[in-house]
Automatic annotation (TrEMBL), chain A:
<dbReference type="GO" id="GO:0043190">
    <property type="term" value="C:ATP-binding cassette (ABC) transporter complex"/>
</dbReference>
<dbReference type="GO" id="GO:0015847">
    <property type="term" value="P:putrescine transport"/>
</dbReference>
<comment type="similarity">
    <text>Belongs to the ABC transporter superfamily. Spermidine/putrescine importer (TC 3.A.1.11.1) family.</text>
</comment>
<dbReference type="InterPro" id="IPR008995">
    <property type="entry name" value="Mo/tungstate-bd_C_term_dom"/>
</dbReference>
<dbReference type="InterPro" id="IPR050093">
    <property type="entry name" value="ABC_SmlMolc_Importer"/>
</dbReference>
<dbReference type="InterPro" id="IPR013611">
    <property type="entry name" value="Transp-assoc_OB_typ2"/>
</dbReference>
<dbReference type="Pfam" id="PF00005">
    <property type="entry name" value="ABC_tran"/>
</dbReference>
<protein>
    <recommendedName>
        <fullName>Spermidine/putrescine import ATP-binding protein PotA</fullName>
        <ecNumber>7.6.2.11</ecNumber>
    </recommendedName>
</protein>
<keyword id="KW-1003">Cell membrane</keyword>
From TrEMBL, chain B:
<dbReference type="GO" id="GO:0055085">
    <property type="term" value="P:transmembrane transport"/>
</dbReference>
<feature type="transmembrane region" description="Helical">
    <location>
        <begin position="181"/>
        <end position="210"/>
    </location>
</feature>
<feature type="transmembrane region" description="Helical">
    <location>
        <begin position="54"/>
        <end position="77"/>
    </location>
</feature>
<keyword id="KW-0813">Transport</keyword>
<keyword id="KW-1003">Cell membrane</keyword>
<feature type="domain" description="ABC transmembrane type-1">
    <location>
        <begin position="52"/>
        <end position="258"/>
    </location>
</feature>
<feature type="transmembrane region" description="Helical">
    <location>
        <begin position="138"/>
        <end position="160"/>
    </location>
</feature>
<keyword id="KW-1133">Transmembrane helix</keyword>
<keyword id="KW-0472">Membrane</keyword>
Length: 377, 271
């Protein structure tokens, strides 16, 4: 296996209006998604959102009811899986239990009828990529979860596929190992230059690893964008609640930059969706880490909210303050648990003013409203 | 606990251990004293040798045919959706609930000179004269395969159904054609089921009695028939016991050898 520094070998993927119906159930609803060559794209969504079905359509295990799947300039919609030349890492790893590590990794080479003399070197290189060179003779049952994961990866890379699909490959690992593997996968992606489509239900994992994240819900593509875009500019309340940690509060539109929360006017640096006089449901998404305790040093034009402290919870790396607005609406604030922050917090029951910068003030339409539909297109 | 188990232990003891011990003793008893005469006859007389050879040959052929016919059925059941799989298995097991005797007579009628099978063959011009399908080895094999087929299909299905479907998908995604994936992944992983099914069918076939008696027409003499003839025709309990003991030892030897390859629980369906 040769390392590729250019992304010329990798291919783009184009999912064009793909739908999949099982009887009356719609698993995929008219999904269009373009992935650039060499890009790392995550499909993120709750279970039942269609992300695994979409991956199946790319891998050839799911026949779309409508639409087409292109890899590079090739229509692959009806191509059987074994002709697609796509590397897949399964959630269960799907290693062959009756074969050694070496035989598992050599499987794609054997299937492709490559000369047997070339196998050992290619297997060695693929295993070296995942730091398992020397494990060729081991049985699968002798490996730890993390090692199995790496073997599955080596096996999916050994035939130098231009596209690699990963179906929640880290979900069976413990937290620490998962975080290590996330970084390793990222580095491997850079080394290989292959296009990677990664399925996960873990938003943090998706944000950490991906160039872009596609958010799916009920078989529909809700939003696709860079992690930062999704975080700072969510399309609707579903994305806002799924990405990050936020409180959603109903607000009414005043004009393009102002909304009303109860009696308080809130200003946003971003344009408020919808038009004046329109009665669409808008929600203010307050991300817990963007809300600050007002110590008087903030600029005069920040949004200020008066609240009362209900509860303070120590969460190790952070402190979570459960607050209540004047009308009783609960909101949450999170801040690092350092000494200064701790001492800044008034006792439970005391009143407190919190600040929210207009740049951090996000107003989204309620998911399922027509703005959502219009914005996706 | 022991008190609760006592009735079962008593039944097993009086109906299994005692008769077996008696059988064993009988086989070693001749002309009023201890003797290996019965065993000497089994190992020296041609009729015994031929019978055991025939028994093993028929068992072997039946086992192979049952495997060839049972494997695709079990495979189909393992890849079909649950509902259809249950239907296939029900069809396999259904005849199982009718008496062996009834099924043997049914085959007799189907396969006889003027039976449906011969009439169809002649009507379609494949043969001019009726084929000798019963009262011989062929008839015995046909009926025995039919009766023992569930014992092949069920262990095969149990094994196949546990092979994760992921592995087939992985094989395909890695470039393996359906045939390649079947030969390299599915078949090797189903081998423990193959071994279990073959052992069950072979061992059951070794001791088969009613079917060869009816279908063989008296000419195909298997080991079990030797036992009954020694008793019914010659009242020679000693010889009959010796044949039974040899048969039992063969079965135990087979289980021992296979047990070293796969766990016995698997053959007996406990796993």
């Amino acid at each position: 296996m040769s390392e590729r520094d250019s992304k010329e070998d990798s291919v783009g993927v184009s999912i064009r209006s793909v739908s999949k119906r099982y009887g009356d159930t719609v698993a995929l609803d008219d999904i269009t998604l373009n992935i650039e060559p060499g890009e790392f794209v995550s499909l993120l969504g709750p279970s039942g959102s269609g992300k695994t079905t979409l991956l199946g359509a790319l891998g050839g295990f799911v026949m779309p009811s409508a639409g087409s799947v292109w890899v590079g300039d090739q229509d692959m919609t009806f191509m059987p899986p074994h002709k697609r030349n796509i590397g897949i890492v399964f959630q269960s790893y799907a290693l062959f239990p009756h074969m050694s590590v070496g035989e598992n990794v050599a499987f794609p080479l054997r299937a492709r009828r490559l000369p047997k003399s070339t196998w050992p070197e290619r297997v060695r290189q693929a295993l070296a990529m995942v730091e398992l060179d020397g494990y060729q003779q081991r049985g699968i049952s002798q490996l730890s979860g993390g090692q199995r994961q790496r073997v599955a990866l080596a096996r999916a890379m050994v035939f130098e596929p231009r596209l690699i699909l990963m179906d929640e490959p880290l979900s069976a690992l413990d937290k620490q190992l998962r975080e290590t593997m996330q970084i390793e996968l990222r580095q491997l992606h850079r080394k290989l230059g292959a296009t990677i489509v990664y399925v996960t239900h873990d938003q943090r994992e998706a944000l950490t690893m991906s160039d872009r994240v596609a958010i799916l819900k009920d078989g529909k593509l809700v939003q696709i964008g860079a992690p930062q875009t999704l975080h700072n500019d969510p399309r609707d309340s579903f994305v806002a609640s799924f990405i990050g940690d936020s409180t959603l509060l109903p607000v009414t539109r005043i004009d393009d930059h102002n909304v009303r929360l109860g009696k308080v006017a809130i200003r946003s640096a971003k344009t408020i969706p919808g038009h004046a006089g329109e009665h669409s449901e808008l929600l203010l998404a307050i991300q817990t880490e963007k809300l600050l305790i007002d110590d008087g040093r903030h600029a005069p034009d920040v949004n200020r909210l008066a609240c009362r402290i209900r509860e303070v919870v120590y969460q190790g790396d952070s402190l979570r303050l459960f607050l209540e607005l004047e009308d009783g609406t609960p909101i949450t604030l999170r801040q690092p648990s350092h000494h200064t922050a701790y001492h800044q917090i008034p006792p439970i029951g005391a009143s407190l003013t919190v600040a929210l910068h207009p740049e951090d003030t996000i107003v989204v339409p309620r998911a399922g409203c027509r703005h959502t539909a219009a914005n996706v297109a | 606990m022991l008190v609760l188990m006592l009735p079962a232990i008593l039944v097993v003891f009086t109906l299994l251990v005692v008769p077996m011990g008696w059988l064993f003793w009988q086989s070693l008893y001749a002309e009023g004293g201890f003797s290996l005469e019965h065993y000497r006859r089994i190992f020296s007389e041609g009729i015994y040798w031929n019978t055991f050879a025939l028994t093993f040959r028929i068992s072997f052929i039946v086992t192979l045919l049952a495997l060839l016919m049972g494997y695709p059925v079990a495979y189909a059941a393992s890849i079909l959706p649950q509902r259809w799989a249950m239907l296939v298995l029900a069809l396999v097991i259904l005849p199982f609930w009718t008496s062996v005797l009834v099924r043997a007579y049914a085959w007799l009628i189907l396969l006889q000179r003027s039976g449906v099978v011969n009439q169809t063959l002649m009507a379609s011009g494949i043969t001019d004269a009726p084929l000798p399908l019963v009262h011989n080895e062929l008839g015995t094999i046909i009926a025995t395969v039919h009766i023992l087929l569930p014992f092949m299909v069920l262990p095969l299905y149990a094994t196949m159904q546990k092979i994760p479907y992921d592995l087939m998908q992985a094989g395909a995604s890695l470039g393996g054609s359906p045939l390649h994936v079947f030969l390299r992944v599915f078949l090797p992983l189903s081998m423990s089921g193959v071994l279990a099914g073959m052992t069950l069918v072979f061992v059951l076939c070794l001791g088969f009695y009613i079917t060869p008696e009816l279908m063989g027409g008296g000419r195909t003499v298997m080991a079990s028939m030797l036992v009954s003839r020694n008793i019914q025709l010659y009242s020679d309990w000693g010889a009959a016991s010796a044949v039974s003991v040899v048969l039992l030892v063969c079965v135990l030897a087979i289980f021992y050898v296979v047990g070293r390859l796969i766990s016995l629980e698997k053959i007996l369906g406990a796993k």
